């Protein structure tokens, strides 16, 4: 006998439209480019015409690869937040990241952020043995 589906999430797909960034009256722009010298630029902006207030946001990011294992990045936005970052690949699957975020409006005040991260990435191989003796491997 078949079990009838639960109706608890009946309107979930329709409600997700409002949570997934499909806002009406919202204008978004993302532009990415790479220069001949290897510097990557990314620019993003958004404006919401429905709110009636000026909530336009704009930011620019630049990333430069020092070598195959290291890169630096810098970003600034129209709220005067300035961010800097350094990423070093220690070995395949292991990265060390240093970052700082400074509020340009209040340099002498507190509230600036510093970050240190160790990113670990692992490749797990799963093997499934079916009844006929074949093995299936997923990367």
UniProtKB/TrEMBL annotation:
Gene3D superfamilies: Porin. Its main location: mitochondrion. It is found in: Mitochondrion outer membrane. Belongs to the eukaryotic mitochondrial porin family. Non-selective voltage-gated ion channel that mediates the transport of anions and cations through the mitochondrion outer membrane and plasma membrane. The channel adopts an open conformation at zero mV and a closed conformation at both positive and negative potentials. There are two populations of channels; the main that functions in a lower open-state conductance with lower ion selectivity, that switch, in a voltage-dependent manner, from the open to a low-conducting 'closed' state and the other that has a normal ion selectivity in the typical high conductance, 'open' state. GO terms for cellular component: mitochondrial outer membrane; pore complex. This is Non-selective voltage-gated ion channel VDAC2. It catalyses: a 1,2-diacyl-sn-glycero-3-phospho-(1D-myo-inositol)(in) = a 1,2-diacyl-sn-glycero-3-phospho-(1D-myo-inositol)(out); chloride(in) = chloride(out); K(+)(in) = K(+)(out); a 1,2-diacyl-sn-glycero-3-phosphocholine(in) = a 1,2-diacyl-sn-glycero-3-phosphocholine(out). InterPro entries: Porin_dom_sf, Porin_Euk, Porin_Euk/Tom40. One of its GO terms (molecular function) is nucleotide binding. Keywords: Acetylation, Ion transport, Membrane, Mitochondrion, Mitochondrion outer membrane, NAD, Nucleotide-binding, Porin, Transmembrane, Transmembrane beta strand, Transport.
């Amino acid at each position: 006998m078949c079990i009838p589906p639960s109706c608890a999430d009946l309107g979930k797909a329709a409600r997700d439209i409002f949570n997934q960034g499909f806002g009406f009256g919202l204008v978004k722009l993302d532009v990415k480019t790479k220069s001949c010298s290897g510097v990557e630029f990314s620019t993003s902006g958004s404006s919401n015409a429905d709110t009636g207030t000026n909530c336009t946001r704009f930011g620019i990011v630049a990333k430069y690869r020092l070598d195959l294992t290291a890169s630096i990045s810098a970003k600034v936005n129209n709220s005067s937040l300035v961010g800097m970052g350094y990423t070093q690949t220690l070995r395949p699957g292991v990265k060390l990241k240093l970052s700082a975020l400074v509020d340009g409006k209040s340099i002498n005040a507190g509230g600036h952020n510093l970050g240190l991260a160790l990113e670990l990435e692992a490749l797990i191989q799963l093997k499934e043995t079916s009844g006929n003796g074949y093995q299936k491997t997923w990367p």
